[in-house]
Amino acid sequence: MRNLRWTVAGFAVLGLILPVLAGGEEKKGHDMKPEAKPAGDAHAAMKAEIGKPAPEFTLKDSEGKEHKLSAYKGKIVVLEWINHECPVCQKHYKDKSMANTFASFKDKNVVWLAIDSSNFAEKKADSIKKWWKDQGNPFPYLMDASGAVGKSFGAKNTPHMFVVDAKGILAYIGAIDDNSEGNKPKPTNYVADAVNALIKGTAVATATTAPYGCQVKY
Prior knowledge:
- The protein is an alpha+beta fold.
- 37% of the residues lie in helices and 17% in strands.
- It has seven helices and nine strands.
- The protein has helices spanning 2-31, 39-45, 87-94, 97-103, 125-135, 148-153, 190-200, and strands spanning 58-61, 66-68, 76-81, 110-116, 141-143, 157-158, 161-164, 170-174, 214-215.
- A seven-stranded mixed beta sheet has the order 2-1-5-4-3-7-8, covered by helices on one side. It has a two-stranded antiparallel sheet with strand order 6-9.
- It is globular and about 45 Å long.
- The N and C termini lie far apart (74 Å).
C-alpha cells in the first residue's frame, strides 16, 4: 500500500512538472531571434532618394571595362536600367529615344550608363554584346547580374531612369518620358528636362515620375 501511494504521488508530481517543461520549451522557441536574412535583402532596404547621394557602385560593361560611379564626379550622370529582351527597351532603341536624348547633351559633360540587373545578364553576355553592338550606341552597357546595384537604387522597371548631378546627388528618378503608350508625337522627355536644368544650374521641375516598362528580372 505504501509503495502504491508513492507511485501515485510520483505520477502526480510528473503531471505538474511536464507541462511546465513543455511550456518552457515553447516560450524558448518564441524568444529565439529570427533567422538572419540573406545579404541581398540588405540592398533591398536601401533606396535611392532625391536630394541625397546616389549609391556608389563599380560594375563592368559588356566589353569588360570597369566603371565606378564616383569616378564620374564633376559630370552629370544618367543611369538607365535596361534589359535587351524587354519589348519596351527594344522599342526605345528602335526609335532611338535613348541615343537621341544622349546626343542632345553632346559636349555638355554628360555621361550615360545603361545597367542590366537581370539575373541572366552574365549567362546571356554574348547575345547582349551582339545586340548592343548592333544598336551602335556610344555609351556602355553595364552588367549587374547579382542585382545588388539595381536594388540599392530601387530600380523597378526597364527602363527606369536616374539622373545624378555633378556632385553625386540624385536629381531625377522615373520614366524617360510621358509616352508609356508610345502614341504621342511629341512626348515630354523628363530626362532631357532634368539634365538641361542641371546644366543651366536651375532646379529640376519634375524630380520624380512613375517609371513604365518591364519589371527588372532580379
